[in-house]
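Narrative progress, year one. The postdoctoral researcher (J.K.) led the effort to move from monomer predictions toward full complexes, under supervision of the PI. The following entry was the first complex the group processed end to end, covering 933 residues in total.
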Amino acid sequence: MSQQGEVLVLDDEPIVCERLMHHLEKHDFSVETFTESPKAIDRLAEKTFDVVVTDLKMRGPTGLEILHYVRDHQPGTQVIIITGFASIDSMREAEYGGVFEFVPKPFQMERLTSLVKKASRKARKEHPKERA
Amino acid sequence: MAEAGEMLGGEYVFDTQYLKTLATGLEEAMHRVVYHLQAITGRRNQDLFDTVWVIAGEIQAAIESRLVVPKGDLVIPIDRIDQELAEAVGDKMARLGEIKKHLGCRVPDGFVVSAYACQQFLEGVGIDPTSPDNPTETLRELRRRVRDAPLPKELARDIRQGLKALDRSGGCDLLAIRSSALGEDGQTSFAGLYETVLGVAPENALHAYKRVVASLYSDNVVAYRRRRGLPPIQGLMPVGFLKMIPAHAGGVAYSLDPTRPEMDVIVVSASRGLGKTVVEGSAPVDTFEVSRQPPHEVTARRIANKEAAYVADLEMGLHRVLIAEAERRSPAITDEQIAKMAAATLMIERYMKRAQDIEWTVDDEGRLHILQVRPLPLPASERPVGRMIQNAASQYPILLDRQGAVACRGIGFGRVHVVDDHGPTEPPPRAVLVARTSTPRLAASLAEASAVITDVGTATGHLAAIAREFRVPTIVDAGDATRVLETGWEVTVDAEENVVYRGRVDELLRFRLMQQSTFEERLEFRLLRRILHRIAPLNLVDPESPGFTAANCTTYHDIIRFAHEEAVRELISGRWVRTPRGESAVRRLILEIPLDLVLIDLGDGLRQGLGTRDAEVDDIECAPLRALLQGLLSEGAWATDPADMDLEGFMASATRAGALTGPLATRPEQNLAILSDEYLHLNLKLGYHFNIVDCYLADQRNHNYIYFRFAGGVTEITRRSRRAVVLRRILEKFDFVTEGSGDLVIGRIKKISRDEMVDRLQMVGRLIGFTRQLDILLRDDALVDRSVNLFLQKVYDESGK
């Protein structure tokens, strides 16, 4: 297991997945990436992650639906939503749904990494037993 | 535009959606610009709408379809090729052109028959290369159809012309016809699946071309495509026609040993004659392990018993010859040649930012030629994991930690070389260049550098743009790098995390070499680069030249520049602005300094009853213009004699250099003031720089503001950037909030009292006079402080503070 945490990245644009994977792995996260949300949900049903980084708008279940799924099934897991279209409504709904952070695209790699680190620490505090 | 350029540095994560938003936003803005220009000029320059439409169309097409077939030339000479043409010439040829153009590598002369040409050809044969249909005929029939079809006339003609042009440049007469297929997703590797024909005589070149195109439908390729879930017969084949080098020896170099990447060695395989033996693995060849550290000694060698060699000549084409018994066990290449090859391999690897697989040949005169370059796939299991990197990195002293901004991502290692313009030595190759600002010497040495760090600068600046072009890891605005880092130190620059380590962090460097793909290779980055080509270059520079016309606008930047100039001309002409009595509201201002200023009075900006005569300073009722002129006309503000400015020594040298003549003279009808009693918009073009002042001055402090914008200049970017620093420092002294990048400065101040406004506008007036010559004077950084102080001194003396 990696020291920093386990991260699931979901974005229908492969470039986002690949660049995040490269960068987060360098920071000692273990990373799984998905470009289709149903497959990501299947994986979330099998495994508890520390952090889920997801796009907002996708074909199939959206980032908000991912957020709700995670809240219902893995309460400790922190969700970061990245998006090119941040409407006030979706931000409010994400806020209400307990999103860890909302990040508009394009974003700086450094910013996201430090958010993932914080989110992972929080997750590990909140569900340490599950992980033992 | 600047923001989009910054994205190319890899620091930001963006996606196709960003590109779409960028394109739409710019298109809308351009439509507004042209629409407003029409309104001002009365429907002249109607063509500009078409220009916007064409550019926007090209940008859209580039973004929307992933397999874009760029229309255009059927045949493209190798000298014109680089990575940006990858969609036209295929990845293989694009990389070859790129290393020639950017790294100066010796590659075979030749040309590429483009993807567009291939599309024309296949469509003529009745195949739709973009359709994902399954073939109704067998693959064998399909291949035969392609091989037997005649080429379109135009294409055959262009290829013959290309061949003729090659003949004239001498050398071997045979050709290598190489496949350079388009990787649809930029990732899928079809290495070795397509055909390459060696030793082709020019008269057989057209036939060989068809053979290579037909290999799109080889059994192996189609099976591979099916396995990868790709449409089986989709795709296009750009084809390289390269002159064959008379080969003394040939082979392959791996920049890392794929089976033992941690060993830090280059692996070279060599055969006599053409490298075909090595590529095919058809007979034993020599192998060498070579140190990655200069002087690249051979650390291990295995010399094979080489019985035969492939050669190509005009009489026999490609054939095998036996090697004389006595020579069979001697190495195919010398250690000296190996060292040169190692250096070239590492140069290419550094540029491509990951491990490389390079096909080479050494000619009869012992010169090294690069035939092919591609990423070397390394097993992911060998890649250092995050913990190893973090642990390894923590062993090394950190010299700079998150100081400044990353302008181009990447990881570099080398010896520090602190660059200053007065220093005697050129930086050695592979150095980590460290400089206070972006000096010209820095830009000149950049292509060879492992990394660059500057104390000041921005990620949108000129140096950053060059660094991205050469893909050199770059950190700017690091504050005190020149103080912390000393020439000769070995450092590892991690321009991903923005950290500089003392020593060589091997795990970090290896992690870089073993990455799956670099951000520069990604489709989105290539798209952005292509889009920027239609947006950012400025071709219309001189408004006085006859070429400064709407028809010559080829980029968005051109259109903006042209529209600006046209609008100002139109306003000044007076046709547009009329007083209520129908008289022209436009008149000249008589000044004792040679500033040809045209006034447009929107109301109460000038004394009543002037008739048609020119205005004098006393006629001005516009409060902000009065204040500004007080400053501009104060003693010594508009310095015509350099000595007046008290800049003594360095002024004198600038004068000697003759630098003060020419560009400083103002041209007629370039300076415009739009005014009312409380409002002023000043649009100045002095020499080659643009200066805009927009302000409102009244009793009610909430409405008061000054907007000051300054850009351009005649000297190179470094001096202009220094001038920008001077301007910002001065403006900030007077409480302006400033921003800018490169040579652009914007200063804003608002909600200040009438007295404070008058004070600031007087200062701005002085500043306009002061900056006329500033960029020419600012030969080095030390003069920045002096200039700021000198200016402040003058202002304080004058105001008696």
